[in-house]
Amino acid sequence: MNSKELFVVLGVPPTMRDLPGEEHLEKLSEAHPRVRVERTYDIDQFAESVKQADGAIVQANFRFPSEALKPDARLRWIQLAAAGADRAWTPELRAAEHVTITSSKNPMGSILAEHTVLLMLALARNLRGLMKSQADKFWPRQDYDIPF
């Protein structure tokens, strides 16, 4: 690693252009005077930039060129921005024992959990039938079994 500057490339899918926001990117860039952060939305540009990077923060759909994973390359750390790393594991990445790979729960994790509970409640309370009744302006009388 270069002792003067650490270079981290941030690979963001084109569908997530607003992540991270400019203020978060600025905070990453200002975290330490020796750290330079570059964000790219392009998979090909990422593949070129990561060859000179010390670290990478990526979604699992970004792939690492074999040159970046060689022991004499600069890359030493990969942060996967998702809990699961299954899609990121390539034979080359598995063989790169000199690279530390970390992952984290996706920032959307709690939102997805809440959405799942909401959908389960919608199924349990027959939301579809209630929406049809609302559209028909018909409210059938029925007794609801309320568990409390």
UniProtKB/TrEMBL annotation:
UniProt name for this protein: D-isomer specific 2-hydroxyacid dehydrogenase catalytic domain-containing protein
Organism: marine metagenome
